[in-house]
Amino acid sequence: MALQAWFMQESDDDQRLPHHKNPPESVSLEQLADLGVLYWHLDPDKYENDPELDKIRRARGYSYMDLLDLCPEKVENYEQKLKNFYTEHIHADEEIRYCLKGSGYFDVRDKDDHWIRILIKAGDLIVLPAGIYHRFTLDTNNYIKLMRLFVGEPIWTPFNRPQEDHPARKEYMKSMAEEVGLPVAAN
Questions:
Q1: Buried/exposed 66-105: b ≥16 CB within 10 Å, e otherwise
Q2: HAMAP family from the xrefs (predicted)?
Q3: What residues are designated binding site?
Q4: Angle at 98 between CA 95 and CA 101, to 5 degrees
Q5: Is the pLDDT at 159 greater than 80, yes or no?
Q6: Which domains does the chain have, with CATH numbers?
Q7: No. of H helices and E strands in the chain?
Q8: What is the 3-state secondary structure (H, E, C) of the chain?
Q9: Is the predicted pLDDT of residue 156 greater than 90, yes or no?
């Protein structure tokens, strides 16, 4: 099953709602790839012993992995954490998330600064490039189990917008100006 993404309707309603425009405007994997967003669909039931996941990890240098259950029952200060995740930010490194159970939304900014909402469900592995403005929230099911992957030691430092002078943002903007889209690898 392919990843679902669409341009968002700006709204102050519950962040966990889909926020489709009327009429809806879908976003393709190719459009996401043009922003540097990568995607694979894997079998989440075999994440502990998946040759395809191992191949991706080796090829991209993802040496660190941990698991996160994100729901009100398992996360202290859940509402505050969700609010923090939903604050627009960048990272100095890629953000790699593999959804094992549940669902949620990653929102990314396109080249014209419009929000694109990406629904991730079990089996979706997504890579957001360093320097892209993004945010995360759960959907109304209020549950997601994620595998977090990193190159080397994990760094979770978010740099809230504006960050136009941050080296990762500058590098990202430079890559966008060169109009070099990254290839999509979807299964």
A1: eeeebeeeeeeeeeeebeebbeebbbbbbbbbbbbebbbb
A2: Salvage_MtnD_euk
A3: 89, 91, 95, 134
A4: 140
A5: yes
A6: 24-177 (2.60.120.10)
A7: 4, 10
A8: CCCEEEEECCCCCCCCCCCECCCCCECCHHHHHHCCCEEEECCHHHHHHCHHHHHHHHHHCCCEEEEEEECCCCCCCHHHHHHHHCCCEECCCCEEEEEEEEEEEEEEECCCCCEEEEEEECCEEEEECCCCCEEEEECCCCCEEEEEEECCCCCCCCEECCCCCCHHHHHHHHHHHCCCCCCCCCC
A9: no
Tokens of 101: 């159970």
Gap between the Cα atoms of 70 and 124, Å rounded: 16
Query: pLDDT tens digits, residue range 15-25?
Result: 999 999 999 99
Residues annotated within the binding site for Fe(2+) are: 89, 91, 95, 134
Q: Hunting for tokens 């290839």 — which residue is that?
A: 183
pTM above 0.90, yes or no: yes
Q: What residues contact residue 111 under an 8 Å CB cut-off, 6+ apart?
A: 34, 35, 176
Give, in order, the Cα–Cα distances in Å from 103 to each of 94, 131, 139, 144.
20, 24, 7, 5
